[in-house]
Prior knowledge:
The structure holds two protein chains of two kinds.
Chain A: H1 4-10, H2 21-25, H3 27-31, H4 39-47, H5 51-56, H6 58-62, H7 68-72, H8 79-91, H9 104-111, E1 137-140, H10 144-151, H11 159-171, H12 187-191, H13 195-210, E2 216-219, H14 222-235, E3 242-245, H15 246-252, E4 268-272, H16 285-293, E5 297-298, H17 321-336, E6 341-344, H18 347-356, E7 369-372, H19 373-384, H20 387-396
Helix pairs in contact in A: 1-8, 11-19, 15-16, 19-20
Chain B: E1 5-11, H1 15-24, E2 33-38, H2 46-54, E3 57-64, H3 75-92, E4 100-104, H4 110-125
Amino acid sequence: MNILQDLIKENRVWYCLDCGKCSSICPITRWETRQHTGPRLLVEKSIQGRGDDLMDDPLFWACLTCKRCTEICPSGVNFSEFVRGARNLARSFNRTGDCTHSEMIQTWGRMMTNPDMRQSRLTWVREDMKFSEDSDTIYFVGCIPYFDPLFAKIGMEGVKIAQAAVRVMNHLGIKPQVLADERCCGHDQLWEGDVETFQALARINIERFKATNAKRIVTTCSECVRTLKLDYPQYVGGHGMEVLHLSELLAQHGLSISEPSDDLPTTRVTYQDPCRLGRHLGIYDAPRQVIEGIGLELVEMERNRASSQCCGTSCWRACGQVSKGIQVERLQEAKATGAETLVTTCLKCQIHLKCAQNDPILGEKIAIEIRDLTTLVAERLTALSTKEFHEEVAIGDR
Amino acid sequence: MADPKIIVFTCNWNAYNGLETAGAKHLGYSPAVIPLKVMCLGQISPGIILKAFENGAKGVLLLGCPPQACHFEFGNRRAEEVYAEAKSLTMLLGYREDQFRLDWLAAGDGQGFVDKVEYFMAGLSGRKGRS
């Protein structure tokens, strides 16, 4: 692979009809005011063999790979995957996107490729949580413990999500196992073109998965689900396990809270479809079933499901006025629904949208509570369930 | 590793001056120490610290200005925030408590520089650590 021509063939870029639907729908194109750009232009540049032009385009690294354009393309051009491959190609010309967060996220990803590394990543575990070493379910925590200290200042829920996930699984009678030395799933590395690091991380993870007796992997992160489910088999090899987002597991169990309770006010919420869970995997109904199952009133934003808007940044490449514009617009859309809470099932959506809310000027205009579905479910179960469960969650709260 | 590397980030105003004094006075300290001067300790970010570890540093020591003596007034506070973030990350990644520290040094305190660096290194060699 790794040659522009092959990428063009592989992702059906030749089939572009030049209709411009992608550029009219692309969230980046709408907000990129400094220079004319768009997926269609990138496709044109690549077909003409203008590799340098392609890689210098502002959209090239800013592309969210949210699949909005792929969804709408009448010719089936797989633009997201094309960008992913072309970024890998760009790295061989020593080109990378913007340096964000002082590259610490990429750095710890590379550090994790050392197979001898012994992390201490289970500090979030509390005594009331039940685990079992020969469980058939692995709870893949992902980068949550790492993001927690970095984004606590913007109010990200962090390890509370992992704690809630285990408690919710315990409530369903599942005692999951957590791996003391799992690695980052490699999603960000893969999408920014660092395939080598991705493969190293994936190999270690697969080795760890295979050392257990588990049959399925449950995660609370949309990106982890996509990566473990689709990209591990494609790039490294299969692990033979079922990969589920926690919302799918809850929907399978038919989690429902129907009895009315004073502790349980009916809150109006709206749901942000993460691009990885929605367009990439087609999981739209499970999170909605769970939201309704726990007795919340769901109101949809104007753009929802397959036409949902991305959170504005992906794989930690490029952040700036374009991302901010997308985020503010999305938050205003959420607020316009009249919902009190914006629910999401992706850690990154929460980080990016909460970061945008720090704007002191916009303040109230984009103020809406942002919660992960997992913590919301745990909270509702707490309010309903036995007093014992109630106390456990209260104690466990960091 | 035969040649352990210790990265010492010093701020330009107090800590680096201390290092220069140590040099001027011909005070000896371990050749494993690699000092890196930055204008203010509040300038560095957790990513830079992780990169030092990624590239094989056995320990990272941050030396800034004494309390209330920051040249830029708020640099100390910022350095403490960065330290807290980076500390959480290094601990998660499996590095020991004493492999990464934040300390301060007054300008002109050459002996203090040697003492602080030697103390940090003693902490490192106390137990077998990751290289």
